[in-house]
């Protein structure tokens, strides 16, 4: 039996901070959100944080009870896979606050090891974050044509998502 997978683009945004694109999908019968992000190099951390807050606000558990329409959709519990080029070194002390923001606002956990470089310059500026997703492993992939070492996320078993 083949499982049907649906994909629906729900939001895209572009401004001086960067780009973000979100799609709703169904994985093994469970709805999920896939988010792709690009942050412009040199963007101050405060603006990066504002960018995420503005574009992912509806998916934060902190908005529960503020908007009836958001509460009905239960967006604060939907599984999320968010990945992209943050252009902020996750190895830096400055990023501790950013990682806390992702965890505190959306319960997003970093899925790749920030100690492993994602660029030839020995920085970790690419990331994959997940919420309520099991069995997803992220690692660097060999690339012969890019400054970046692309991230590859795989699952050894059928992807399963968990709720709160």
Structure, explained:
- The longest helix is centred in the N-terminal third of the chain and has 12 residues.
- By secondary structure, this protein is of the alpha+beta class.
- A six-stranded mixed β-sheet has the order 1-2-3-4-6-5, covered by helices on one side. A two-stranded antiparallel ribbon has the order 7-10. A two-stranded antiparallel ribbon has the order 8-9.
- The model has no long low-confidence stretch (mean pLDDT 84).
- The protein is 18% helix and 33% strand.
- Helix 1 packs parallel to helix 3.
- The chain has a single domain, classed as 4-Layer Sandwich (Deoxyribonuclease I, Chain A).
- The chain contains three helices and ten strands.
List keywords for this structure.
Deoxyribonuclease I, Chain A; 10 strands; alpha+beta; 33% strand; 3 helices; 164 residues
Secondary-structure map:
Elements: E1 7-14, E2 18-27, E3 30-39, H1 45-56, H2 68-73, E4 80-85, H3 95-106, E5 109-110, E6 126-131, E7 133-134, E8 137-140, E9 151-154, E10 160-161
Parallel strand pairs: 3-4
Antiparallel strand pairs: 1-2, 2-3, 4-6, 5-6, 7-10, 8-9
Helix pairs in contact: 1-3
Short description:
The chain has 164 residues and is of the alpha+beta class. The chain has helices at residues 45-56, 68-73, 95-106, and strands at 7-14, 18-27, 30-39, 80-85, 109-110, 126-131, 133-134, 137-140, 151-154, 160-161.
């Amino acid at each position: 039996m083949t499982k049907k997978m649906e994909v629906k683009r729900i939001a895209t945004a572009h401004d001086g901070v960067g780009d973000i694109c979100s799609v709703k999908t169904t994985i093994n019968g469970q709805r999920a959100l896939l988010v792709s992000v690009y942050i412009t190099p040199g963007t101050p951390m405060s603006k990066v944080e504002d960018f995420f807050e503005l574009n992912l606000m509806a998916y934060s558990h902190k908005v529960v009870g503020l908007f009836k329409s958001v509460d009905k959709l239960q967006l604060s519990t939907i599984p999320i896979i968010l990945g992209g080029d943050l252009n902020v070194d996750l190895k830096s002390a400055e990023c501790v606050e950013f990682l806390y923001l992702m965890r505190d606002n959306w319960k997003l956990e970093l899925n790749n090891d920030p100690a492993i470089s994602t660029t030839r310059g020995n920085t970790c500026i690419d990331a994959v974050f997940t919420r309520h997703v099991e069995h997803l492993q992220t690692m660097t992939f060999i690339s012969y044509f890019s400054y970046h070492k692309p991230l590859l996320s795989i699952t050894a078993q059928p992807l399963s998502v968990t709720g709160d």
